[in-house]
Amino acid sequence: MKKISDSEEQRKEIQGIQKKSRERNKNTATYNPKLRDCLYHYNEKTPKGKEAMSELSSIFITEGDSASGTLTQARNADFQAVFSLRGKPLNCVKVKYKKVAGNDELNYLISALGIENDNDNLRYNNIIIATDADDDGMHIRMLVVSFFLKYHPELVRRGHLHILQTPLFRVKNKKEVRYCYDQEEKNQAQIELKDSKTTRFKGLGEISPHEFSDFIGEDMRLDPVKISDEENITGLMEFYMGDNTIDRQNFIRRNLRSEVELDGVDF
Length: 267
What we know:
It contains twelve helices and nine strands. It is an alpha/beta fold. 29% of the residues are buried.
């Protein structure tokens, strides 16, 4: 009964947001200042010979103008769009739907995705969260994921939501350049490339558009956001993103492991 009640409340909140979004979007028409759109979309019929473009259609959700500027220059404008967030979005778990519905940033995102009425008009097959690999970037990533889990869980269940993996290090010498996505790859590259120099990328804006085009092309690394039908989304979000700070702190203390422990090395 509680699950039914939670689902009913969630549907009412979604309907409220959709109504508010439609009202706001009447004023903006097709103009969206946060969006750098692409040519082909998931919900549109594509010309003969271009059918693959709708399946490839993607939108990168970035943090700030620096990262979005880099992505905009590096993307394939035929099927890759860029949406720029300003700062950290609302924590949808902690606020009432009225505040979410009145948030310009989230309304622009809803409009860009084409899901004001329902998920059937989704404009992009791949919704890709592209944030920095630092604390702020991880926080923004969790806030965006929380928004989709709370108000558009079917998009997650259908496999539309992804997280972009970008390189943390560049190891190069006079003959070769390697981009590394974790510490292990970096260590291996430093061993194999003699007299190399290592650069640590602090944010997406530090990577040049020329370099970035390699990371969002055919070899793009995406981590899909997955959730099963059986999982209690409301319970998950309340625990990880709600007001129970003490419970989360205790959970972290119980499960925190050092790098040495994770590597399986005994003290």
